[in-house]
């Protein structure tokens, strides 16, 4: 987990470190996901999946991050209360994570100060690593629902495949913004 968390954090820095606020929010068309949308969604989703699997509160809630980040640019996303739905069943992921909401809501998702959100990401990665270190074998191997099937809890916590997929999509958007040769293939 620590290796993947470090790698993801490095890749995120390479992808976003030189982007302007306008570039973070750029959409190919209305309803399409910006780089900021991917950053927002991938970490919050993993936070809630891990918290649910371990029977703990999400780091987002435990750390009161909604109050610690200036979320004014995206305030409308919080108008969608309740849980999301995925694969025909309710998800532990709230709708404000942009899990199961109208495409028009994606247009409302504008980046707050990135450094504030990245402070949450750093807290999430460190807290989850600490939770894993303290977890018992029984907690990690207990079966929890995952896409309609029982799976070991640890598989929901350490699943960076979701994040890596979004990093690839962010690379595509970055290429559309900056043009040929502006990608980050070296990451």
Widest sheet: strand ordering: 1-2
What's the N-to-C terminus distance?
A: 19 Å
What assembly state would you assign to the polypeptide chains in this entry?
Answer: single chain
The proportion of residues forming helix, as a percent range, comes to 40-55%
User: Average pLDDT, to the nearest integer?
Assistant: 86
Key terms for this structure?
187 residues; mainly alpha; two-stranded antiparallel sheet
Description:
The longest helix has 21 residues, at 114-134. It contains ten helices and four strands. With 187 residues, it is mostly helical. The mean pLDDT is 86. It is globular and about 50 Å long. A hairpin with a 2-residue loop joins strand 1 (83-86) and strand 2 (89-94). Helix 1 (2-16) packs parallel to helix 10, helix 3 (35-54) runs parallel beside helix 7 (114-134) and helix 3 (35-54) runs antiparallel to helix 10. 54% of the residues lie in helices and 10% in strands. The chain has a two-stranded antiparallel sheet. 30% of the residues are buried.
Short description:
The chain is mainly alpha-helical and 187 residues long.
């Amino acid at each position: 987990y620590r290796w993947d968390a470090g790698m993801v954090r490095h890749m995120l820095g390479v992808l976003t470190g030189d982007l302007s606020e306008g570039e973070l929010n750029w959409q190919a068309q209305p309803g399409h996901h910006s780089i900021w949308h991917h950053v927002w969604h991938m970490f919050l989703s993993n936070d809630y999946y891990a918290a649910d699997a371990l029977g703990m509160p999400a780091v987002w809630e435990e750390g009161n991050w909604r109050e610690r980040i200036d979320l004014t640019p995206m305030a409308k996303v919080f108008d969608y209360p309740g849980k999301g739905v995925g694969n025909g069943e309710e998800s532990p992921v709230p709708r404000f994570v942009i899990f199961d909401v109208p495409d028009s809501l994606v247009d409302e998702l504008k980046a707050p100060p990135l450094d504030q959100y990245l402070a949450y990401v750093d807290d999430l990665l460190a807290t989850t690593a600490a939770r894993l270190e303290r977890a018992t074998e029984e907690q990690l191997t207990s079966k929890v629902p995952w896409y309609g099937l029982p799976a070991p809890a640890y598989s929901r916590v350490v699943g960076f495949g979701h994040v890596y997929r979004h990093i690839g999509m962010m690379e595509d958007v970055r290429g559309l913004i900056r043009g040929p040769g502006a990608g980050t293939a070296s990451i």
